[in-house]
Design a protein that fits this description.
The chain is built from 14 helices and 27 strands. 35% of the residues lie in helices and 23% in strands. The strands form eight sheets. It has a five-stranded antiparallel beta sheet, with no helix packed on it. By secondary structure, it is an alpha+beta fold. It folds into four domains: 1-78 and 420-589; 79-110 and 364-418, no CATH class; 132-237, no CATH class; 254-360, no CATH class.
């Protein structure tokens, strides 16, 4: 407030007096309005909460009433499928599949075509020993340093430098042992280190000698880099061809090991890039890319329908088809001999063909379904191939690998049965949401409840209850919800409960009658089912224009607006009242102060 209250002149507690008078006034004109506003806001919140519960019940009913007869995807047609051996075959359904048993004999499964380099990339021959730097071997994993060899217990050592070629390393081995340990490489790039002995002036392989390669103190990994894992007479041979390829280096560099790689234009002149074409999809390639870069680029192009990899043991590029079946991987080049170098094709231009032996053709799946032979390029066999509508079979292994301990019986059986779990779950949701609506309405409309006594809500509950006990007049064995196990809870007659065993019996013995009892085709407007009728009631309650919640919410919000307006006016009146009485008391105080001053002056005159 802009005024001040002093009380200096009179000595009265004017501020306290004004506050008490305002409080009395506030209690008479503002507090009742605020209490009424609180009650209305509580009711508005309660209506919103209750509307949500009716909406949940509406959704639960729609699960049944919006189901179309003969739909291939509704819960009434669900099936459950089990396999006698999931490791060999499984199945799923996308709609109605008749209950049955299906016997499968899996002759073979579908596999993918694989294209693989016909030769080890960068394989080191006798002629290439001097050009192959040792530290570039094993895809750049070879290490220089000290390496030990033990012949019949005697130790020989060599020191390998970063600049040594494979020829240098071989010479060091031969020199260190004075010919008693000899390193060689054959025309296929296979490396060997063997013990030798002198016979008639010549060194020959010593089959009786004990040769051990390496010690724990070595700093070079020569044995593992050269893959010297195969024990032979007199020593060791490499398990795979020794390769000088380094997949991390640019393909046009000496370190890559792809010395004959070329890029050329349409006239055969040197160029910077070219194309490889995999299954009709062009992939740009150039000499600055490494083999690893090439593999990543191929794999990033899903349209090429292959996955590329590099086998570091055999030093070969592998292309695996992403689809199964008996078909080649199409390969071609433009402006480069890269696919030739990788050992995947042979020839150039119109003469480029798949390298002989480079592709291992995939195979189709062959499955006997109830004795009928089915061939599929995929291990997922759909209804189009099997003739069984809505059923998808997945085969995993030939049943020739499997026996279930019966004489010569090597098959897998799929058992297809009706699955009522979705129906039961939907009915449980209905009962739960129905009971939630009932208990919430009863709590909110009792004396002192958030909504208070409401004849309309009681009427709605009465309609709902009558439907749960109504006799169905349509066709079918069941004419009441109680016949399928849904009835009043004897501990609380206003609520529903489910007798699971009774419901299971009804579903197993007469599913169609259960369906008609609940919904006789709401989407076709033949709304004779019990849930159709209840849904009509709930739809009316939730109607956005004339429904219970629409009208009640509109009315309550209008009253809230009106009360807020009245509170605003009452607040203004209180402010004016406080200002007026405060001014009056201040004037009184000033008058008393003036009189006291005059009295003091008069008294002084009288001595």
């Amino acid at each position: 407030m802009s005024f001040s209250i002093t009380g200096v002149g009179s000595g009265f507690d004017i501020s306290g007096i004004v506050s008490q008078l305002v409080a009395v006034k506030e209690a008479s004109i503002l507090t009742p309005l605020e209490d009424k506003l609180s009650t209305l806001e509580t009711k508005n919140t309660a209506l919103t909460s209750l509307k949500g519960k009716f909406s949940t019940l509406q959704s639960a009913l729609q699960t049944f009433t919006k189901t179309i007869y003969n739909s291939s995807s509704d819960m009434w047609n669900n099936t459950k499928i089990s396999s006698t051996n999931d490791a060999y075959a499984t199945a799923t359904s996308s709609g109605s599949v008749a209950a049955s048993q299906i016997e499968l004999f899996i002759e073979q499964i579908a596999t993918s075509t694989t294209a693989k380099s016909v030769h080890s990339l960068g394989a080191t021959s006798k002629e290439g020993l001097e050009g192959a730097k040792f530290i570039n071997l094993a895809n750049g994993q070879a290490k220089s340093g000290e390496f030990s060899m033990f012949l019949n217990g005697k130790e020989f050592n060599i020191e390998i430098s970063d600049e040594d070629s494979l020829k240098d390393v071989m010479d060091k081995i031969n020199t260190a042992s004075k010919g008693q340990i000899k390193a060689e490489v054959d025309e296929n790039g296979m490396f060997s280190i063997k013990a030798h002995k002198e016979v008639d002036g010549e060194f020959v392989v010593d089959n009786e000698a004990s040769l051990i390669l390496g010690s724990s103190g070595d700093t070079s990994n020569l044995a593992s880099a050269l893959k010297l894992h195969t024990k032979v007479e007199g020593g060791y041979e490499s398990a795979y061809a020794v390769s000088a390829v380094n997949t991390t280096q640019a393909m046009n560099s000496a370190e890559s090991g792809l010395a004959d790689l070329r890029f050329y234009d349409s006239e055969g002149n040197p160029a910077e890039s070219g194309k490889i074409i995999i299954n009709g999809k062009e992939i740009e390639v150039n000499g600055d890319m490494s083999i690893n870069d090439l593999i990543s680029k191929i794999n990033s192009n899903s349209d090429a329908k292959v996955k590329a990899s590099y086998d570091a043991l055999t030093n070969k590029v592998i292309l695996s088809a992403t689809q199964t079946g008996q078909s080649n991987i199409s390969l071609a080049s433009e402006g480069t001999n890269l696919l030739n170098i990788l050992g995947l094709t042979h020839g150039e231009g119109e003469n480029e063909i798949l390298a002989a032996g480079s592709q291992e053709l995939g195979q189709n799946a062959i499955v006997h379904i109830n004795g009928n032979k089915v061939i599929s390029n995929s291990n997922t066999i759909t209804g189009e191939s099997s003739g069984i509508a809505n059923l998808s079979l997945t085969v995993k292994k030939p049943t020739s690998d499997y026996s279930n301990n019966k004489d010569d019986e090597k098959s897998v059986t799929l058992n297809i049965d009706a699955d009522y779990s979705a129906i039961k779950s939907a009915l449980e949701k209905f009962v739960s949401s129905y009971n939630d609506v009932v208990s919430t309405v009863e709590t909110m409309t009792q004396s002192g409840g958030k909504i208070g006594r409401d004849a309309s809500l009681n009427s709605i509950l009465s309609q709902m209850r009558s439907i749960t006990s109504k006799v169905f007049s349509g066709e079918g064995e069941f004419s009441m919800l109680a016949h399928i196990g849904i009835s009043s809870d004897k501990d609380d007659l206003s609520k529903l409960k489910i007798d699971s065993s009774k419901l299971d019996k009804a579903l197993n013995e007469n599913l169609d009658s259960v369906k008609k009892l609940l919904s006789d085709g709401y989407t076709s407007k033949e709304d004779n089912g019990l849930f159709d009728g209840m849904l009509n009631t709930i739809n009316g309650v939730l109607d956005v224009e004339r429904g219970y919640f629409a009208t009640q919410t509109e009315s309550v919000q209008a009253m809230i607006k009106s009360v807020n307006s009245r509170i605003s006016r009452a607040t203004d009146r209180l402010t004016n009242y406080e200002t007026r009485i405060a001014n009056q008391f201040n004037k009184m105080d000033s008058t008393i102060a003036a009189l006291n001053s005059q009295l003091s002056t008069f008294t002084s005159y009288l001595g």
